[in-house]
Design goal:
2 copies of one chain form a homodimer. The first copy, chain A, is of the alpha+beta class and about 240 residues long. Chain A is built from 9 helices and 12 strands. Chain A has helices at about 5-10, 20-30, 85-90, 110-120, 120-150, 150-165, 180-190, 195-205, 220-230; strands at about 30-35, 40-45, 50-55, 60-65, 70-80, 80-85, 95-100, 105-110, 170, 175, 210, 215-220. Chain A has a 4-stranded antiparallel beta sheet. In chain A, strands 2-7-4-5 form a 4-stranded antiparallel beta sheet. In chain A, β9 (about 170) and β10 (about 175) form a beta hairpin. In chain A, α1 packs across α2 (about 20-30) and α6 (about 150-165) crosses α9 (about 220-230). The longest helix of chain A is centred in the middle third of the chain and has 27 residues, at about 120-150. The structure holds a DNA duplex (30 and 30 nucleotides).
DNA sequence: TCATTGCTGTGACCGTGGTCACACTGCCCC
DNA sequence: GGGGCAGTGTGACCACGGTCACAGCAATGA
């Protein structure tokens, strides 16, 4: 872990990308590296916030948890994204909890330095606005899905996104590994593990996908797409 | 409708409050007044956006609509709030639709002028950041409720919020009128009109509230509070 | 006055989402 | 090899959320 790594990590962040080498180096000098092991808790909803975290590598899930233990993932941040900038910006506490989905490396940037930078550099401020706008759109579509779509549609969308993002086109179809457990998928799409299992099976039965071990092969992308787009009550 | 009214309306907006009289007047000179009648559509999800709307009076609901006709309200904006600043800020289209809940007066501010102002005045930019942060928190709690709470809890919370915001303490309890139809309440809390009706009845049966016509009397605030706080599976 | 309209209340019904229990399958590690 | 351990698959069951149909009620306006 060198200072150069930190600079590189910061540069990947949308709202630090506008900074020049000197500014980045200065910023990096204020950062503290934080190693996270899989499943480690970064912070809990309601905690006060001292600064923001830049994801250098790995993946951090931000989530809400019910007393029953059931959780709803709000967003997953990977390299080049930040976690916790919201409470830094509005002075409140963390609106949700966060934990590492895999071993991860973060940079902690104290809020003092971050806010100072915002005030100094209006380009940064605008980039932050764009980031927040993006986050809002994402949340709005999440609300839409949870309120107006069925579990099978949310799962279909999940699979489609994975297929487009990390799928390999083979003669059999679009193949990709299902990295996460059904439990994790459930938390992302807003249901329970059992239903993920059942709905995956249903897709297999209908010939939309094929599963080998934990590898998914999309046989019929059009059908999957249709499943993902449909509304409640409009299933076939 | 005078220019003074416009200035007053703008001043109520969090991110214009920092402007001085001259700036406000200048801004107002670029605004166009738009009268909306109840149920009139302001814009539809996906429409391109030419500027933002300042609510001077009345109420605008921002919502997502399913093909079935069922809708989910994201937020309701009243005097002093704005609608559509998001697409102005990130250059995208409207992420949701908007319509008037009652007769309303809006000011339309073309995006050119608004963006120029942002660039000129960093105070405005920071106020916008605070507004977006607030919106995000609101959406996060909406996601939490939709995913992790039952309809009865969401309704209880709705009633509690109303009681705190506009309730009159009387010898019988906390009284307030239920302005909206069950249909509207349903769209706000994410369900259908029938369930709102049934759940209201259940609260009455349990002695938590009393209903006279469309007036609600909260008899037992503690119970209502408990209903509103509980999680799925933790009901009595 | 009466017809129309829009909203509420409600009984009957049903499907999806969710719970629970348990067997099974890899897998890691002693 | 065999005993945990974590995750998956699945049958049975249940309840909440949602649908549908219809009756009642209040407000409106011709």
């Amino acid at each position: 872990m060198t200072a150069l790594d930190s600079v590189a990590a910061l540069r990947r962040v949308l709202f630090f990308a506008v900074l020049d080498e000197n500014e980045l180096r200065n910023l990096a000098s204020h950062c503290v590296v934080r190693q996270m092991t899989k499943d480690e808790l970064l912070f809990t909803e309601g905690d006060p916030c001292q600064g923001l975290f830049v994801v250098q590598s790995g993946a951090i899930k931000v989530f809400k948890m019910a007393e029953t233990g059931r959780e709803q993932v709000l967003v997953i941040e990977r390299a080049g994204s930040t976690v916790g900038e919201l409470p830094v910006l509005d002075g409140g506490n963390f609106p949700a909890s966060a934990a590492a989905l895999e071993d991860s490396t973060l940079l902690f940037l104290p809020k003092r330095e971050f806010l100072e930078l915002c005030r100094r550099n209006s380009e940064v401020a605008f980039a932050i606005i764009r980031t927040l706008a993006w986050r809002f759109r994402y949340m709005a579509s999440l609300v839409e899905e949870l309120s107006l779509k069925e579990v099978s549609h949310r799962l279909a969308r999940f699979l489609r996104d994975r297929a487009l993002a990390s799928g390999n086109r083979t003669k059999r179809g679009i193949e990709f590994p299902l990295e996460e457990t059904n439990q994790q998928i459930a938390a992302e799409i807003g249901t329970v593990r059992d239903l993920v299992s059942r709905n995956l099976r249903r897709f297999v039965d209908r010939g939309i996908i094929k599963m080998e071990r934990r590898k998914v092969i999309v046989l019929n992308m059009a059908d999957l797409e249709e499943q993902a787009t449909g509304t409640k009550r409009a299933s076939g």
